[in-house]
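dumping this here so i dont lose it
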């Protein structure tokens, strides 16, 4: 079993998935235009029936999406500045054959991120400001703190589905050029731009704290229950 997107490399696969999101919005009747001067935030203007809305584009190869909290979860970077969240997600993280596109109301996405943040902090998880916090698109379990906020892909049906073969052969030149201009760098494997997800580490303690928080996020356990040993050999 091969993962075709992984074989493409980070830049090519990211651009392919962003292109899928934009083509999906067009298929749903929207005119699309990238918002200038937004750096790595990857925001677009979507216009339909004379109404223009700002959308944040998110891609995911594990069917989780992320936004970074600010001010102790009172605000969300990028998310607070948009009306919609346009998501491009693989159908199967292990063996992707298709890319599904979802168009989500930002108000509902914010509510779910707020709920996830509250559940994590109430259960002793460490959630850092300006570092991406993930919620799952598919159905999860509300009794697991790290899964609270799930089911966006259940509650909002796809607006488009493209096979990877189709995307490789039929992306319009205009979309391809616009996506290339969106950002010159690929996203990280967690599908979030480095500028929005990776904090600056200045000490070994910072690295260990980040590692514990990430393990807590993945396992659903409290970061206080996770112990890490560090060994440095000269």
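and the seq i came up w/
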């Amino acid at each position: 079993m091969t993962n075709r997107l992984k074989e493409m490399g980070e830049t090519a696969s990211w651009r392919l998935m962003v292109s899928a999101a934009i083509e999906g919005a067009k298929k749903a009747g929207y005119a699309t235009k990238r918002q200038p001067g937004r750096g790595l935030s990857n925001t677009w203007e979507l216009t339909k029936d004379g109404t223009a809305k700002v959308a944040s584009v998110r891609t995911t190869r594990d069917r989780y999406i992320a936004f970074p909290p600010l001010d102790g979860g009172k605000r969300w970077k990028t998310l607070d500045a948009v009306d919609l969240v346009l998501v491009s997600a693989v159908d199967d993280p292990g063996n992707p054959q298709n890319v599904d596109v979802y168009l989500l109301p930002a108000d509902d996405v914010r509510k779910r991120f707020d709920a996830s943040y509250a559940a994590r902090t109430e259960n002793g998880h460490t959630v850092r400001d300006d570092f991406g916090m993930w919620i799952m698109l598919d159905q999860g379990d509300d009794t697991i703190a790290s899964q609270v906020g799930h089911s966006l892909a259940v509650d909002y049906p796809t607006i488009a589905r493209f096979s990877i073969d189709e995307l490789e052969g039929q992306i319009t030149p205009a979309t391809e050029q616009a996506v290339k201009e969106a950002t010159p760098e690929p996203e990280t494997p967690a599908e979030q731009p480095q500028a929005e997800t990776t904090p600056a580490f200045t000490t070994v303690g910072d690295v260990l704290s980040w590692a514990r928080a990430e393990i807590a996020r993945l396992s659903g356990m409290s970061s206080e229950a996770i112990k890490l040993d560090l060994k440095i050999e000269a």
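The mean pLDDT is 83.
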